[in-house]
Amino acid sequence: MIELGNYNxxxxxxxxxxxxxxxxxxxxxxxxxxxxxxxxxxxxxxxxVFCYLDHEERPVATTIKPFIKRNExxxxxxxxxxxxxxxxxxxxxxxxxxPYREQRTKLIAGSWHVVYCYLDEKSFRLVGSTRLxxxxxxxxxxxxxNEEVNLLVYRRSDLGWDVIVNNKHRGLLFKSDxxxxxxxxxxxxGYIKNIRxxxxxxxxxxxxxxxxxxxxARIIYEKLLAQEGFIGLHDKSSPEEIKVWFxxxxxxxxxxxxxxxxxxKIDLKTDGIYLV
Length: 276
Prior knowledge:
Layout: E1 6-15, E2 19-23, E3 30-33, E4 46-53, E5 59-62, E6 72-82, E7 85-89, E8 96-99, E9 112-120, E10 125-129, E11 148-156, E12 160-165, E13 169-174, E14 187-195, E15 201-204, H1 210-226, E16 230-231, H2 239-246, H3 250-262, E17 266-269, E18 272-275
Parallel strand pairs: 13-15
Antiparallel strand pairs: 1-2, 1-4, 2-3, 4-5, 6-7, 6-9, 7-8, 9-10, 11-12, 11-14, 12-13, 14-15, 16-18, 17-18
């Protein structure tokens, strides 16, 4: 069965003047318009295509890969706004509608927003929503402490940044754990720092324990090479100076230089760090 808003592997059934007709055991008349037909093909061959509704609300196939698909979150630009809602550019000819009822705040043409794409059961149309919380669920929590996860930053708060974890959970990235610029729409690799009793997730951008030492030490070592073997920082330097230089916490910095010192790659003096 063809799934709208997703990729489908379908068989080429026949060629016509308007394009190829594709199908599977349930459908035998899905059009792939001429402009998307590959240069080389054979009847009976299988193609992976994205399926959605065209301007006349008919199911149609395309070989273009959209910026977002069904049941996923993405960061999209508002192309236009009219009486029906906001229309977002998701990489296809027909824009993705975000009805007014699905707008957390009023969307303005030219602005960018994190949205969720889903199939509206009443209209049977693919629509978007910026009311993200109703699509995020932390029960059950399907991650573990220290696990590496995919993040999508969607909102800034007083505590830091709200992030979408693995396309399903809501997490919080505390500003005290952020040592580089972060903005809405950023896709990052993060780590589960803590799972609270109420199942809220605390996120960090740095791996914990020994996993954090190797990359941090490598960053400092490569910076020393670039600075001709000397940097005027040490374990008494302020957290702000360390953040500017290395985008890491002072705690991670001290562990990293300790690792480099034990490996006899650096020498620590009162005026800074020297490359051995």
